[in-house]
Design a protein that fits this description.
The chain is an alpha/beta fold. It has a single domain (6-216), classed as Rossmann fold. Helices cover 42% and strands 15% of the residues. The longest helix has 19 residues, at 60-78. It binds zinc ion.
């Protein structure tokens, strides 16, 4: 499809993109868009605590393997393709070489829209680095400036100044989003947390369940119609 919409989600950890924007991505896949998920890390430290609790002797490599499997299973439910960079978590270091790799990924996929972490998520440095890297890599790739920031970590939106400027009603695909989230078995708490989050965003936007975004638009848009 020549004019097929392409969306790339750049996610610090396996679950981030799904908890914050999984419903939106499902809706776009259903509408014919091509979606690609890019994971910068396996989340093998900060976001895999349960695995270490359940299996104290587990190796980091095994955690990475499990998290990668979960991430791709989640993307499959969404209908997206995936790319796991596995750069190493905590701290995530985006060296010049890694920036080139991310930029090349954007160049190759040529997304119309990029989704990533909130640009001022100062409370969670890995997410903050991921956001900054996504914006810089898009710039290096001379790619789409239609960048949408998704939710910061649940419970921190007020502290890091995340005030949504648009919402997507995900009520009709909410069950599928939860099914995708359930694939991230190492983080079972996400299901109830994001049910609450999406319900709250639904109340704000007058629907049952919604996902919230802030659009980064460095240039003043010139539109033919408001929806252009
Ligand atoms: Zn994360």
């Amino acid at each position: 499809m020549a004019n097929q919409l392409k969306i790339m989600a750049i996610s610090a950890h396996p679950a981030d993109f799904c908890s914050r924007s999984g419903g939106t991505l499902i809706k776009h896949v259903q509408a014919g868009a091509k979606v690609k998920i890019v994971w910068l890390t396996h989340g093998e430290t900060d976001e895999s605590g349960l695995l270490y609790q359940q299996r104290p002797d587990i190796s980091v490599d095994e955690v990475r393997r499990i998290r990668e499997e979960e991430a791709f299973a989640c993307a499959e439910v969404i209908g997206a393709e995936g790319k796991m960079f596995g750069f190493g978590d905590n701290p995530l270091r985006m060296t010049p070489e890694r920036m080139e790799m991310l930029s090349q990924e954007i160049k190759d996929f040529r997304p119309n829209i990029i989704l990533t972490h909130w640009q001022a998520e100062l409370t969670y440095p890995t997410h903050w680095v991921a956001s900054e890297s996504a914006v810089r890599a898009a710039q290096m790739a001379r790619a789409s400036w239609d960048i949408r920031f998704f939710e910061p970590n649940i419970g921190t939106a007020v502290r890091v100044g995340f005030v949504p400027d648009h919402y997507v009603d995900i009520s009709d695909v909410f069950d599928q989003k939860i099914e995708a989230l359930t694939k991230l078995a190492a983080q079972p708490h996400l299901v109830s947390l994001y049910k609450t989050c999406n319900r709250w965003r639904g109340i704000e936007s007058r629907c049952e369940y919604a996902e919230a975004f802030v659009r980064f638009a460095p240039e003043v848009p010139l539109l033919h119609l408001l929806t252009g």
